[in-house]
Amino acid sequence: MLSIGGDTGSPVLPSMMSCQDNRAAFIKSTINVSRNYGFDGLDLDWEFPIKSEDMLNLALLLKEWRLAINIESLASSKPALILSAAVYFSPNLLLSGITYPTEALSNYLDFLSPMCYNYQGSWDTSATGAPALLYDKSSNISTSYGISAWKQNGVPSTKLVMGIPLYGNTWELKDPNDHGIGAPAVGVGPGSHGEMSYDDIVTFNSENNASVVYNNETVSTYSYSGTNWIGYDDTNSISAKIKYAKAQGLGGYFFWALGSDSNWTLSRTASMAWDHDES
Questions:
Q1: Quick one: pLDDT at residue 181?
Q2: Which of 117, 165, 208, 222 is the least buried, fewest Cβ under 10 Å from its Cβ?
Q3: Cis before residue 89, ω within 30 degrees of 0?
Q4: Is the pTM of this model over 0.90?
């Protein structure tokens, strides 16, 4: 799959989608590149549409893209290219109050990939948080809420591919003796701008003799050592999330990103959980 986009706040995608001629040129170019380099399909990663007009244009793009893919497939006698999109964890963008065109996404995409992470991070250093928790009784910012909302908005379970992070977010605790989820914090912790790959987290935990806690209520993991606090997913939370995804009948899961794993530990855990025959 060739993924296009990913640039947070970039004006390129909104500008392209707002004009029919630009959309047509973009669609033609993506199909040509995909065929020339032997890709199986195309993925759009727009982070994120912020206006109602953006959502309307996204629906137009997907409709025109799918039509062009089908026409090209008939003309070339090749299987139609797969078309997918990475999307916000929920169909409702909570800060802007706008909603994805779920009918268009469901009709024209082979699957969509909610990015179920970054719920908490360096933008709020007042308290620790579980950055990719499955459940949250106190808010709608959770993976279970997002997946349920996509389904309630008409997207079939089999078209949903749940995102899981292979990195964590870090905080500096105000008091090393107060170290639960939601504990007071005074800034970001170790890592680059408050982020650490899972591989680095494993190393940090080992070198600093960190305490590791799995929180069953939220389905998330955190570790702490002194004033350093890290929220992330480990084998326990990954296994529980995969079990949830299977119970929900989802089409699959994806990691961001494989290079951040530690000796394929979480990748193998997820694969074994997904393939496990519970009968």
A1: 97
A2: 208
A3: no
A4: yes
The predicted structure's pLDDT at residue 7: 72
Cα separation, 146 vs 139, whole angstroms = 11
Q: What average pLDDT values come out for the chain (279 residues) when binned by 10 residues?
A: 85 93 98 98 94 96 98 97 98 90 98 98 96 96 98 98 98 98 98 97 98 98 98 98 98 97 98 79
- Identity of the amino acid at 5: G
Taking every pair of C-alpha atoms in the chain, what is the biggest distance, in angstroms? Answer: 67
CATH superfamily of 2-164+235-275: Glycosidases (3.20.20.80)
| CB-neighbour burial class of residue 175 (10 A; exposed 0-12, middle 13-18, buried 19+) | exposed
101's tokens: 């065109």
Residue type, 174: K
Catalytic-residue membership of 195 = no
Of the residues 47, 72, 195, 207, only one is catalytic, namely: 47
Instruction: Tell me the residue type at 142.
Output: S
Q: Where are the domains of the chain?
A: 2-164+235-275, 168-232
Kindly report the CATH number that applies to the domain delimited by 168-232: 3.10.50.10
